[in-house]
UniProtKB/TrEMBL annotation:
GO CC entries: cytoplasm; microtubule
Pfam families from the UniProt entry: p25-alpha
Gene Ontology process terms (BP): microtubule bundle formation; microtubule polymerization; positive regulation of protein polymerization
Protein name from the UniProt record: Uncharacterized protein
TM ranges: none
InterPro entries on file: EF-hand-dom_pair, TPP/p25
Species for this entry: Monopterus albus (Swamp eel)
Family the entry assigns: Belongs to the TPPP family.
Amino acid sequence: MEKSEVETCFQKFAVHGDTKATGKEMNGKNFAKLCKDCNIIDSKNVTTTDVDIVLNKSARVITFEQFSQALTELASKRFKGKSKEEALQQLYGLIAGKEPTNVGITKVAKAAAVDRLTDTTKYTGSHMERFDESGKGKGKVGREDIPDTSGYVSAYKGSGTYDDKVKEA
């Protein structure tokens, strides 16, 4: 098993859910997620408590070297009766090529009520003015009355004729 595949997996989980993460260090929450997603936690030999205990031996954030040491400890618990190296190789096999899964992502509602409420062709009154014929929003133009700053009174029929009258005189 390639150590680089495990390191790639480490980096993917290290940056999961954290926009500021560099991928060089992993926090405890992401380590626990890696253990859960890669089936290292099997609830018989390795539990979430075991993962927490192994993690608390090192710092709050772990580097790849500390991660490897933690995996070595967990491997002997997960695969009892195997040699340390064999257990570690099997653990690497669980981890290699895995990525963080997103369980329970909110999905877009596909209900008739939602379709009816978002159909712009059925809008009336001032709401109707906010959309063009295709149903695309007009933006600021559709939202507010933009004041006429030309200097003329609204609805004045001779607006824009001042310059012409001044030239004639």
